[in-house]
Structures are given as structure tokens and as C-alpha cells.
Amino acid sequence: MGKAGRFACIFTPMALTIASLVCLIIVGLGGTNKDNSNLNNLYFFRANTTDIVVTPEDLGEDIGKNIPHNALTDAIINQTTNAAKTALGVKDFYHISLWNYCAGDLDNGKDKVTYCSPHKNEFWFNPVEVWGLNNTNIDHLFSKELRDGLNAYRITAKWMFIAYIVALVSTIVEILVGFFALFSRLGSLATTIVSTISSFFLIAFALTATILYATLMGSFNEALKKYNIHGSLGHSMYVVAWLAVAFSFGAGIFWLFSSCCCSGRSNKIKYGDASGKKGAYERVDSPYGHREGPANFQTGPGYQAPHHGVPLGNFGQKNTAYEPYRSADV
After folding, report:
1. DSSP-assigned letters across all residues of 101-149
2. Which residue in 12, 98, 90, 20 sits closest to 53, CA to CA?
3. How far apart are CA 97 and CA 268, in angstroms?
4. How many CB atoms lie under 10 A from the CB of residue 79?
5. pLDDT digit string (tens) for 208-235?
6. 71 vs 58: CA distance, rounded Å
7. In whole angstroms, what is the distance from residue 55 CA to residue 224 CA?
């Protein structure tokens, strides 16, 4: 296999690595532009607060006991809920991405993002702080039912972010080192090592994100269902993340294959030694004619076999024999 074959062998893992990098970049772009609907659909978790409900008991035990439950009080509570939601600045939905969160309202049944928080490394979404529930009765309920979950979420989100950064950097390094794989299998071996590191952290990132937000969704819905607040996962983000894993894993397999095969050396062998250089033995013509075999065998009166520079008088003498191959150095 020559250089063209070596290039064809390297092209596949290189293309898969670039595809993995593109998917990683798309994951990182989620929630970075509130005016881009495609990027706004890239989120790990969605908190829907459109139909939030506050009961009299949530306003305080004494108030809850003294307020009767009828149509009038329900209407008052409903107006109070809307007023409190407006006063606190609570939006209809919140999208949690890698670097930040975006919030917005429903406009004729469609999401309209109106705000995206500043980007922050190791970001995690704190609903108590974002919704302004500090020092409220609901805050105490959060602290009781979600404190452990939020603390675990904060720690795990930090590890998830680190895994993403390592996967992104190692994928870029993999592409750069991959160019050296064009010239030797040793370069392919080095690229395979980098690819293994990239795949490991990519799998760690995607798996952590999936388990983390699936667990958070369960805890979130269980603790806040009485307020009619529920969470859901963003499927597009997970599809892109796991596609990055698949591309990276496939690239690693092909990098490993290119380090074992596809040497890039030519299989063309000339007469001579194994290296293709003359200097061992090369074929010579038969002294009996231009070609051997019955097709060149002639008889008849007056026929004289051509000598071809070979002294016929020497045939039959001791230690003299016809050699079909002779040293090229002679």
C-alpha cells in the first residue's frame, strides 16, 4: 500500500474525529444566544413554571388555617400567585445549559426566550436563588426536600464541566496529532492514545449529564409537584452529546487499525533483493535460444543454434554449467 492508500486509511478516523469535535462545539453553544431558536432548543433540563400554583398553606400556617376555601378565596389566591410571580420575576420556563440558563415566556404556545444569564464555568442552576425564594416559606420547603439533591447536583455539575473541557481539548489535540499519522504508523499509535483519552472523558461527560439531570428531574418533580412546577429533559442536547461519543469511539477504532496496518510502503518488488535494489541475482537469456521451450526448438539440415556470446566449446567440460541467473554485480 502506497502513500495514497495510507491517506485513504487515515481519512476515515480523521473525519470521525472532526465530526465529534463539531458535536462538542454544538453542545457548548447551547444557550449562548437568546435570539437563535436552534441554540435555545439545546438544553439539558427544562423547568416549566407556567402553571405555578401557591396555596394558602404556602403563605404560612396561620394564614392557611384562617382563610376559607371557596371560589372567592381561590380567585384571590390565583391573583396573588400571578402578582407574586410577576414581582419575583419568575418566567414561564427555564432552560439549563452547560454554561448558563435561559428563561422566557410562552407566546401563543411557543417558547420565547427573553433572558440568558452570563456564562459561568462549572455552572449549576440554583432555583431558590434564581426565583428569589430566599427567606420565604417555600425556601424552607426547598431546604428540607431538595437541599441534598441540589448539593449533589452542584458537585456533579462541576465534574461534568471539567470532563467536557478535557474532552474538547483532547479532541482538538487528536486532530493535530492525526496529521502525523499520515507519515507513519507510529503517528497513528500516538493518535490512538490521545483518542482513547478523548473518548473516555466524552463518555464520562455524556453519561454524567444523562444520569445527573434524569435524577434531578425526578427529585424536582417530586418536591415541587404541589406547586404545579415540573421539569423535563432536553432530548436534542443528549442526542448531540451521544453522537459525539459515537463518532469519537469509531475514530479510536480506525486509528488503532491504521497503527497496525496501512504502512504506506509500496508493494512493488523489482528483480533483485527484497529491497528492490539490484545486486543479488538477475535473469539471463538461455544460450540455446531467445526463449526456452518447444516453441523455439528448431531442427533441420543446416540449422545451427545461436551462440549468444556463449562459447559452445566449453559445454561438456568439467565444472562448466549453464546458470539461468547470474550475479548482477558481475
Report:
1. EEEEEEETTEEEEEEEPPP-TT----HHHHTT-TTSHHHHHHHHHTHHH
2. 90
3. 56
4. 10
5. 999 999 988 888 888 777 778 888 999 9
6. 18
7. 13
